[in-house]
Amino acid sequence: MKKTENLTVTVIAKQSNGAGNMLLTLAGAGTDRLPSFTPGAHIDVVIPGCGKRQYSLCSERADRQRYQICVRLDQLSTGGSRWLHQQLKVGDRLLISAPRNHFPLPDAPRTLLFAGGIGLTPLLLMAETLAERRAEFTLHLYLKRGDELAFAGRLAQLGERVVIHYSQEGDSLRRQVPAELTHPHHSVLVSCGPAGFTDHLHQLAAHYGWQAGQLHSERFSPVPTTQSVAGDRFEVEIASSGARYAIGADQSIADVLEAAGISIELSCGQGMCGACITGVLSGRPDHRDEVLSQQERAANDCIVLCCSRAHSPLLVLDL
Ligand code: FES
User: Picking from 222-236, 237-251, 256-270, which range would have the lowest pLDDT averaged per residue?
Assistant: First the structure.
């Protein structure tokens, strides 16, 4: 697995963007163009003393001189969003990864976009792309109150294809189901938001006959589960060298390979960002991530090394 090169960028603007959100504009060094990206892509941001955090890109794709990310101040912050809100200044430099996209915009005759809070960030760019293509879509945005509205100008440009729901006014997904959600035909349902929002949306979708392959989502946090990285012991083989490593009952593949000095691309460490996806040449993975699609899981030809395990005694990794 080839490690993604990090980029140094400079913070050129820091603006409030709806209550609790900060819009950061990052410029590349010199006149070099930044790597291109597609809607749904994210970058890792290296936070001093905290490690990497992932943020969706929301800048206009045509602008290759700068990136924009929107950072919500997480009240349970382990330091990442708090540092970006409170310590980072205009003029500071940041280390970021090149964009990665494991949440691409699916192709379908009709697209329903459902955003919970700042889950709007990747979906806004998808909505703008669909509008450019003159495709059929609606963006439903769920907020608590009016002061939470971010990207007001860009949403206004999308006109009546944006429907904003305020739960303080009784318009929440739990109280009112948009009529469009009751018609799954020739459609995809793309959502981004907190885990509870996405889970409830998917329950409603299943009730109205949406199939798993029509649902595309990105969550802010992993699905709460009693199933941790722990499980039965198994072995992995590195295809290029033939070396084998035993993965203990409470170890991840990534932990064992890193301890053995094998270079692994890691970012979230929670099975959410896709940085550590690696090819599988033989064996049957036990997928425990949040990032692979149903089709990718069924193909069994790749695995997320930071959290997934094996159903077979041996996995041969394309490393
Ligand atoms: S490091 Fe993010 S999915 Fe493995």
Answer: 222-236
